[in-house]
Design brief:
This protein is mainly α. The chain has 14 helices and no strands. The protein is elongated and about 65 Å long. The N and C termini lie far apart (48 Å).
């Protein structure tokens, strides 16, 4: 940031957030307040589909691991988060209905995304080893996997999957990435449920999982990584060695 920087420019906003997440540095609250007053978030959130540079910066933050948590929290406190992603207001500070959770719905999604760089699928795949399109898909699906949670909604996974088009299309993502992200959101609880209730060698179990990921191995890797990221951001009893081993065997 220099004297020549325009606080109303969303490029400056995302570049600042990206630098903070990449270098694990705080952003001065007064700086974010200045950007909020100048409309940097609104300029991007209401300016039509996000340009490619904005999606790239956004995914760099999502890939930064745990330093991103304080970045999103700072943007949220400044009022910028819901300007960038209007649908975020639906889960902002929303309490969880299950005691297994440690965080509100919005913070849980952030924590799950922060876990991704440290995880490995049963086949050895990591966030960094995925193809670019699949990496984008996994980051987005994890960051928005619980958007469907509402009081009185019995299946938040299905509702969340239906919401992906409305969230990701304004951000400029392709139909293929939106479709795959919606698929991951829809089935993000599947592996954990089957691991403790189904026989891994049963053809019906195999077919069910294969259908869930459209028969695509890399998408199964994504689903396994999302499952781990989601469960490991809850209380310890949600993801222990026993549960992790069962899911690994099932995916294998």
């Amino acid at each position: 940031l220099t004297a020549a920087s325009n606080p109303a420019d969303p490029r400056v906003l995302l570049a600042t957030a990206k630098a903070a997440a990449s270098k694990d540095l705080p952003i001065r609250p007064a700086t974010l307040l200045h950007m909020w007053e100048s409309g940097a978030g609104r300029a991007l959130g209401e300016g039509g589909a996000w340009p490619e540079w904005a999606r790239a910066d956004f995914e760099t933050i999502l890939s930064a691991g745990h330093p991103q948590v304080s970045v999103w929290e700072s943007l949220d406190i400044a009022g910028i988060m819901t300007e960038l992603i209007p649908a975020w207001s639906l889960v902002r500070n929303l309490p969880q209905r299950s005691a297994i959770h440690r965080h509100t719905v919005d913070r849980h999604q952030i924590e799950a995304t922060a876990n991704l760089p440290d995880l490995r699928s049963a086949s050895g795949a990591t966030l960094a080893s995925l193809s670019p399109a699949r990496r984008s898909t996994l980051l987005l699906a994890t960051f928005f996997h619980d958007m469907g949670k509402r009081p009185g909604v019995p299946d938040h996974s299905e509702r969340g999957a239906h919401m992906m088009e409305g969230i990701l299309a304004p951000m400029g993502y392709s139909e293929s990435i939106i479709t795959d992200a919606a698929r991951l959101v829809h089935y993000h609880l599947l592996l954990g449920a089957l691991a403790t209730s189904a026989e891994p060698e049963d053809p019906d179990t195999i077919n069910l999982i294969s259908d869930a990921v459209a028969g695509q191995k890399e998408l199964l890797d994504c689903l396994h990584l999302l499952t781990q990221a989601d469960a490991s951001s809850c209380k310890p009893e949600a993801w222990d060695i026993w549960k992790a081993t069962l899911v690994d065997q099932l995916v294998g």
